[in-house]
Design goal:
The protein is mainly alpha-helical. Helix content is about 55%, strand content about 5%. Helix 4 packs across helix 15.
């Protein structure tokens, strides 16, 4: 059972959870073999190909208000389509590890862009490099029209440097605050002058607006361009430490263990910033499977929704419902609050969001009803009638359907109620929840109660 507990934990952190069928398939497998299978399943990369082109600005330039409104609507529709498309892909793709890490990089390189085609391109850079090389990904993102536009490098010109990208490159993407000076920011900005993109969204280096004079950056002097700045930053091991601290908080524990982080940084730095060996080190470390690191991380809203979708094979007649849930829970894909992204962790939870989080599973699975054991008298016809009306109303609005036959059919015959509860939840069961489990008489009602519990919010 020890192996199954570890495999369940690995699936929770390296993906979006485990189904009963997947648990059965994992019986007898080692953690290393399971991890190997996770990488193999994520080896194939399929780009998102949802937005086919940019919004047409040609009429807007002629000052046509109706055309401007139409373009704005077109851009919003592209955002919705892209959001829905990636949510659907994460809910069904075999390569969970790639998508889970793509979510990490999507928030690490937080960016907003008006053009859906630019957003899609950025997402695909993050997804294609999610298990590849971090330095390669950083350079590709630095040259992407989405990031060049978001952080104003299109306006970074010789004699009039714009420091936005240069600052965030160090503060948020690589070194972390306090590991560079304001003068380093100024010199870095000069090196990135001339970086921009053309009307087709292709990167262009414009030498006529590039500052070609000598620059001194992080103690080194030369006629640096943007690529040179990135090379110098990655030669500094602090970049590996900063990233390892952030990954530790994402995959292990909100409170970093400095010894473990330093060991992660060693692996990352020595590999030349290869992501696969970095992850392999974490997922095969004994400390990753310690009890204090199990069931202790708050799921992000997207992780919560994707986990439910995968566990119950939920299909949506109205995909916009998922976007509404994201808004309510405080995480709309491709629309971070700022360049620092979502703070994550315990910040996902407050009194309002917790109420919605606990209600959403029953909304998707049972018309908004949680059949708590012992709460309702089966003979109370008025209560049952009210429940039916409420379920019909919720189902009409949400139009989501869970495949209960598949889910219930995958539960091993003879599995106890306690074992079902232990499988569905990562944290240890509380005494109150155990009492409720013991009193339950219906498996479906039990499962809905379990996924509507505070414990289900943790991975």
């Amino acid at each position: 059972m020890a192996n199954l507990k570890q495999i369940k934990h690995l699936a929770s952190r390296a993906g979006f959870g485990l189904s009963f069928d997947e648990l059965k398939a994992a019986e007898g497998a080692s953690v290393k073999q399971t991890l190997k299978d996770l990488f193999k399943a994520s080896a194939d990369y399929q780009p998102l190909d949802i937005v086919k082109g940019g919004a047409d600005y040609s009429m807007v330039k002629k000052g046509d208000p109706a055309a401007r409104k139409m373009v704005q609507q077109q851009m919003r529709q592209q955002e919705r389509d892209l959001n829905s498309g990636w949510m659907d892909y994460m809910s069904t793709a075999k390569g969970q590890l790639r998508e889970k890490m793509a979510l990490f990089w999507n928030n690490h390189f937080a960016c907003r862009a008006k053009q859906g085609i630019f957003v899609q391109q950025l997402a695909n850079i993050q997804r294609s490099n999610a298990l590849g090389n971090f330095k390669t990904m950083t350079l590709e993102i630095a040259k992407s029209p989405a990031m060049l536009s978001f952080l104003n490098n299109q306006q970074n010109l010789k004699g009039h440097p714009n420091e936005n990208f240069a600052r965030e490159l160090m503060e948020l993407f690589t070194l972390g605050r306090g590991n560079y000076t304001e003068q380093d920011v100024k010199e870095s900005a000069r090196a990135f002058t001339g970086w921009g993109y053309d009307r087709g969204g292709e990167f262009r280096f414009r030498p006529f607006v590039h500052d070609s004079d000598r620059k001194t950056f992080l103690g080194k002097t030369g006629n640096f361009k943007g690529e040179d700045i990135i090379n110098i930053i990655f030669d500094n091991k602090q970049t590996a430490r900063f990233l390892s601290t952030k990954l530790y908080k994402y995959l292990v524990n909100e409170i970093p263990d400095q010894a473990h982080v330093e060991a992660m940084a060693d692996v990352f730095y020595k590999s030349g910033y290869e992501i696969k060996p970095w992850l392999e080190y974490v997922f095969t470390a004994d400390w990753f499977y310690e009890d204090k690191n199990i069931g202790n991380l708050v799921k992000s809203p997207v992780e919560l929704l994707i986990g439910l979708n995968r566990q119950f094979n939920i299909t949506y007649q109205r995909p916009g419902v998922l976007l509404q849930f994201q808004k309510v829970l405080g995480q709309v894909l491709f629309y971070p609050p700022n360049v620092a992204g979502w703070p994550g962790g315990r910040n996902w939870i407050d009194s309002s969001s917790l109420m919605f989080r606990i209600k959403i599973p029953s909304t998707l699975l049972n018309g908004g009803v949680i059949d708590f054991a012992g709460k309702a008298d089966p003979e109370d016809e008025a209560f049952l009638a009210t429940t039916r009306v409420m379920k019909e109303a919720v189902n009409t609005r949400v139009q989501a359907k869970a495949d209960w036959d598949k889910f219930l059919g995958e539960i091993p015959k003879g599995l106890s109620k306690t074992s079902i509860a232990q499988f569905m939840l990562e944290p240890k069961l509380s005494s109150a929840l155990m009492r409720s489990v013991d009193q339950s008489t219906d498996t479906k009602a039990l499962v809905i109660e379990l996924v509507s519990s505070p414990e289900y919010q943790l991975s």
